[in-house]
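Intended use. Records such as the Response regulatory domain-containing protein entry shown here are meant for training and evaluating sequence-to-structure methods. They are not intended to support clinical decisions.
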Amino acid sequence: MEETSPIVAIIEDDDAVRRALTRLIASFGYRTLEFESGEKFLAERTAVSSDCVIADFHMSGMTGLDVLLKTKSEAESPPVVIMTGFDEPGKRSRCMGAGAAAYLVKPFERDVIAKTLRDILDH
């Protein structure tokens, strides 16, 4: 992994899922940053920069949609991918309408997340 590789911030409150997703994304050659909450990500955002954000929709405190809306209100916002294990009618359209770069339903295949990140980061 090179110092110039894109950085993907992973916001997931389930430790095991966050670690697994971090390993998976690193295996694609991207650098990763891990956050257990949207609040932690936003608090540390000025100190760390990311090229893409993957946020779980359902977390205690801020949801992934809350993170998306907060980052979209800033001048330079990275693309945000929303993921969820609880897909519900209208959730995808709400997230995409709010500006999500992609919407993924867990569990997703390795190829799905790889293609999603390539489409977003490998211009």
